[in-house]
Amino acid sequence: MFMLIANESILRAARKSDEMLEPYEWKRSRTVLRRERASNRPDLADYYELAKNLGGAVVRIANGSKSYINPFDMHMDNTDDDGDPVKVKTDFIETVCEIAIGGRYGLSPIEKSIIDRCVNVVYEPYLDHLEKTGKRIDYQAAPTMLDFYNVMNMQSQPEAVSMALSLERYVKGALDVFSHHTNIEIDNRFTVFDIKNIGSGLKELGLQICLDNIWNKMVSNKAKGRDTWFYIDEFYLLMQKPTSAAYIAEIWKRARKWNGIPTAITQNVEDMLKSEDARTVINNCSFRMLLGQAPMNRKQLCQMYDISPEEEKYISAAKPGMGLLQIGDDIIPVDDSFPKHTQLYRIMSTKPHEDLG
């Protein structure tokens, strides 16, 4: 697990990172790469105890839950260079559709054109509503997956009929958790999205939709002069499909515009290094933390970041907490041996059957 509480050496390094941001065009994003260990497997519910002990909130998203996030929520300030929020949202809806129905080869050009058309149709009433009310976002007036499905069903192309049929289980079936209006309000400074019990078939989709909800919150925070720090564990899940990976890579490029500081955390380093979009995300970060790595991953990372043989020792057969920090062009070896007999260690540790006395 990535530890939010660090020792003084890491805090000094983090402060140095912020001091160095200007030469790197304020790329306030982080990457944490770690080797997967059978004794310390990530769990999307691991952060519950941390949130509870630090006065945070936990939003549980699962089938049967009464907490809903609508993937069609759209903030009018979340725009591209042309100032069109619908274009930005269309890219995201394409990502949602690719995960839900894209199959092995993703979406075809015809399917993407149909999705583009349907997205524009479904947002027309919403745009009219915002113009009349003067609001920038309205969670109760936003279209839903059901509205999108109904518009898709009205198209005559056979591809549209096929996509609507594939979407049906997400709006009328057992997987309809994302077909409702958003009914959660994130007003706690420390909020954890818990999708552990969402089911393996919805986990990737759930991660994307939670991220989109955070993105809308980040846009709102920018208007209030606030920064938004967000951490994504199991990040490799978001990079498995081309459309999804491209969307996330774009977020990493644009986050600083909205005072966002994203952190990607993953153990599946090998899969990340195979993806060009994943490499783009890693290379667009000003702060990287590398923990123990497998030999093949270690070789690639050493080549990517010009890690010396002496520095490589810190990610080769490294004990827990030992690794490398890369801040800009500087590489700093760290040995963050956290005291075990402390309350902080107890709530952060994910090691099963560990005797903490």
What does the model show?
The chain is α/β, with parallel strands linked by helices. Helices cover 43% and strands 11% of the residues. The protein contains 13 helices and 8 strands. The strands form 2 sheets. It has a 6-stranded mixed beta sheet with strand order 4-5-1-6-7-8, with helices on both faces. A two-stranded parallel sheet has the order 2-3. Strand 7 and strand 8 form a beta hairpin. Helix 3 (85-101) crosses helix 4, helix 4 (109-133) crosses helix 5 and helix 8 packs parallel to helix 10.
Provide a brief overview of the structure.
With 357 residues, the protein is of the alpha/beta class. It has helices at residues 8-19, 47-53, 85-101, 109-133, 145-153, 158-171, 203-223, 242-254, 269-274, 276-283, 295-305, 309-312, 343-348, and strands at residues 30-33, 57-60, 191-194, 228-232, 260-266, 287-290, 322-327, 330-335. Residues 1-27 and 35-42 have low confidence and may be disordered.
Can you count the beta strands?
8
Order of helices and strands: HEHEHHHHEHEHEHHEHHEEH
Radius of gyration, in Å, reads: 21 Å
Q: Which consecutive residue ranges, at least 5 long each, have pLDDT under 50? A: 1-27, 35-42
How confident overall, as mean pLDDT? 82
3D shape = globular
Total helix count?
A: 13
Largest sheet: 6 strands, mixed
Beta-strand content bin: 5-15%
How do the strands line up in the largest sheet?
4-5-1-6-7-8
Report the helical percentage.
40-55%
SS-derived structural category: alpha/beta
Report how far the terminal alpha carbons are from each other.
21 Å
